[in-house]
Amino acid sequence: MRLSRLRTLLQASSAVFSNGYAGSLVTRYVNTNQLKGVCVPYLNCYACPSSLYSCPIGTLQHFMAIRTVPVMLLGMLGLVGLTTGRMACGWACPFGFFQELLHRIPTRKYSVPKAVRHLKWFVLAFLVLLAPMITGDTWFCKICPAGSLLAGLPWVAWNPANPVTGSPVLQVQPDFQFLAVMALLMAFLIWFVFSKRPFCKTLCPLGAILALFNGVSMVRLEVASSCDSCATCNSVCPMDLDVTKELNSVECIRCLECTKCGHVRIVPPFKDKVGSHVEADF
User: Fold this and answer.
1) Cα separation of 143 and 174, whole Å?
2) For a Cys staple, 29 with which of 71, 163, 271, 277, CB 3.0–4.6 Å?
3) Phi/psi at 29 (nearest 5 deg)?
């Protein structure tokens, strides 16, 4: 199976796997299964009525708000980061997949200025860590476009029932805050059409966390000595990287699209400096 098709299949499967509580469609009840206490290594809004698992960023904010260290969450993120780096962004994140789908709409395309890619560190430090700790509230969740798409719209359009009382959860009409968040979501959706994965590049705090491990993770990439500078890898990179110079940088999502030219290869785990190369064969 070709790499792109395999990656598309896994991304779509991940979206279904993460939000596949079919019972919510029949009963209109929000899923309250105990599995919702388990985090997946990508954005997946806990508030989605059919969500089966939790979002690590939402969970991290909650623990910051109650000023407690999320030991299990940090252990999970550390394990994922040390083994695969930011690979979950490229192979499993439903919101990243959605961005790639919208970008396929034929229009003129624009690159994201590299200067604004540093914003995700501010989002992580301030909105995810500092602001919740000071105010006791989950600030990033209020503006997260993934949450707006997967949870905000379904709640208003469908208005699920309370599993205890059976009455509709929402008792009032959407307010100004909701309309402002929807306007922000619409702006992002338009941006996704014109640029490759702009949210991943500029604002995703989870991508920032996993990016810290890119240089030391077991899954790493290298450029073969036979590289002829054909630039094929740059043209297919969803993060608009100069692959030969930014390989294994904090922006790389390990999608492996760059291996198609045959000059970029996966480094075997624990490979020493003089070890042999192993190519990704898809």
Assistant:
1) 15
2) 163
3) -90, 145
Contact indicator for 152, 109 with CB cutoff of 8 Å: no
Burial 224-247 (b: 16+ CB within 10 A, else e): eeeeeeeebbbebbbbbbebeebb
Residue 164, judged by CB atoms within 10 A of its CB (0-12, 13-18, 19+), counts as exposed
Residue 264, helix vs strand vs coil: strand
Kindly give, in sequence order, each residue whose CB lies less than 8 Å from that of residue 75, ignoring residues fewer than 6 positions away. none
| 185-220 per-residue burial string, b: 16 or more CB within 10 A, e: under 16 | beebeebbbbbbbbbbbbbbbbbbbbbbbbeebebb
Which amino acid is it at 177?
A: Q
Distance CA 49, CA 61 (A): 20
In the Cβ-directed half-sphere of 193, how many Cα atoms lie within 13 Å? 9
Decide: 264 and 226 in contact? Cβ < 8 Å.
no
Cβ atoms of residues 30 and 166 within 8 Å: no
State the Cα–Cα distance between residues 24 and 237, nearest whole angstrom.
37
* Residues 43/207, Cβ–Cβ less than 8 Å: no
pLDDT profile of the chain (282 residues), mean per 10 = 88 92 76 86 90 94 96 97 96 96 96 94 97 96 94 81 71 78 96 97 97 93 86 91 91 93 81 43 36
Q: Is the Cβ–Cβ distance between 147 and 49 less than 8 Å? A: no
What's the CA gap between 118 and 203, in Å, rounded?
Answer: 8
Give the pair of three-digit tokens for residue 280.
């990704």
Closest CA to 209 of 100, 75, 116, 98: 75
Radius of gyration of the chain (CA): 20
Q: What count of other Cβ atoms lies within 10 Å of the Cβ of residue 162? A: 12
